[in-house]
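anyone seen this seq b4? input:
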Amino acid sequence: MRLSTSWMYQQSLNSMISQQSALAATQNQVSTGNRINVASDDPAGAGQVVSLNHVISTNAQYSSTIDSATTRLNTEASTLSSINSVLDTARTLALQAVNGTLSDSDRKSIASQLSQIHDQLVQLANTTDSNGNALFAGTSTTKTPFQVDANGTVSYGGNDSQQRSAVGSGMQVATSDPGSGLFMNIPNGNGSFQASAGSANTGTLVVGSNSVTDLSAWNSTKAASGGGYTITFAAGGAWTATDANGNAVLDSSGNPVGGTYTDGGSISFNGMNIAMSGTPAAGDTVSVSTGGQQDIFSTLNTMISALQSGASDTQLTNVMSRQIESIDQTQSAISSVQVSIGGRLDTLQQQQGAYQDLNVTYQSALSDVQGADAYTAISNLSLQQTALQASQQMFAQMKSMSLFNYLK
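predicted toks r here
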């Protein structure tokens, strides 16, 4: 068998090229810290790396969305707290205004303060998030959902929907609350009905707190009332009640309801109780209406107008009492939303914690599949460098060998 010089050269070169390739691959492992840098390094492992990186990227996107949603909800919660404080001030001023010792100038001063509160409330209702999107416009893109006309009347340009963010596979969390439910569509009175003294009353009757005391009786009669009742007083405080159609209201025995009211007492029928004070004149009335709504901005405007009108103490007290009820209903709506926001923030926090735990797990799995053992890689690198150097030296010696060296 004859071995040619060219064949030996080629074999030596192939061996060195193979060693250089292995050395380069090991150097890449040491420099990157990864065992798999291209799919050919480990096709099966490379598939796992792609899958794990996709899951990690998806979770990172959800985590980013959660951060944005948390910021937006915290901004909304802070704004609602400010609005509640403003309404507390308005309520305090309304109570001060019914003090009979106040002069007209004192009441106009309170009206001026309420006017400033009105403007402040509009500004707060138009608060935007960090991206410049209105907090209380629903899903509308309008930046100023609450617009004020020349008469001070506020209109709502948003919608009734909630913005939602995807924070997981098939999981969404509401990140906004529409201003219609918070500021505009506020139930009148106690939420079930509103009792108001007639504007033409001449006595000193003031309608105080009122409530539904028997829900079953109220539910069974409110539809039959046609939307409300009218209580009419005669001399000596005697009273009768009629429904919206002018028919006498009957008790469970079929007799007309009625009685005699005394100062500081109350009137009860059909599951409701209406507290009053003062003395009604003959012909004075109290109306009971159901299903009405009023926006908080109109509430403030009504208070301002009453304070500027020069109304009597009785008239002013009746007006302010009804507007205080409206403020209370608004604050109740705000409180309900604040509780809801707290629950949503808690959900986001738990979901964010879950993603953080999962990220640690997935990163560990990715490291196990893709990562290189540093000690092994460095050891292999040293051995491969030594082997390559030996091959190079052997090739250099072999290249200098020739038959002519033995013929000399």
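The chain has nine helices and 14 strands. The longest helix spans residues 313-370. kinda curious what u guys think
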